[in-house]
Description:
By secondary structure, the protein is α+β, with helices and mostly antiparallel strands. It is 16% helix and 33% strand. The strands form three sheets. The protein has a six-stranded antiparallel sheet. Strands 6-11-8-9 form a four-stranded antiparallel sheet, with no helix packed on it. Strands 3-4 form a two-stranded antiparallel ribbon. A hairpin with a 6-residue loop joins β8 (144-149) and β9. The protein binds 2-oxoglutaric acid.
Amino acid sequence: MSTISEVTTRVAGFRLWPGALDAAAQANLVAEVFARLDQAPLYRPITPGGRPFSVMMSNFGPLGWVSDRSGYRYQATHPETARPWPAIPQVLLDLWNATVGWPAPPDACLVNLYRESAKMGLHQDKDEADLGAPVLSVSLGDAAMFRIGAAEGGRTTTLKLESGDVCALTGSARLARHGIDRVLEGSSRLIPGGGRLNLTLRCAG
Ligand SMILES: O=C(O)CCC(=O)C(=O)O
């Protein structure tokens, strides 16, 4: 049977758990994330073409996703400090088990911080070694308009992701096109300094 999120988006394999994290869990997770960001500071990557991302990024876990003039890839160290990324918070590993239930744990957690007019264009996640493993995404702070469409092309659907929502690209949605059109600035006070935090868990290596 199809889930509501599969019906509304017409993307089979797209799963959404609205309000998966309650207010206390969100606040605890934000505190854990910001403590780790002291060790692995947010930075602004550039595209292979040299354009700065509007989103600030960091990573947790053995591998981190990076973008620079050489292209997109995963690497074990922060591009600016050359230090290993901090560990993925246990609560995210527990969430992975409770939602997608994939037998292997994720080895990469991309941290995206959207402030002011930051957004993310429509794209596919294709840099991982195992494209069969799901991608799990956690939204914290300001609400955002998330766009998603099937991998093959065609129409896309926009839905609002609120703080505490968790969604996943599984099965035939693994290569779905997706992005963030807009963040509803000031809709939450959860993130120190404002904005939206997205944590994306993947099996990269
Ligand atoms: O911020 C989001 O919800 C999406 C992030 C994303 O698509 C990505 O990091 O590839």
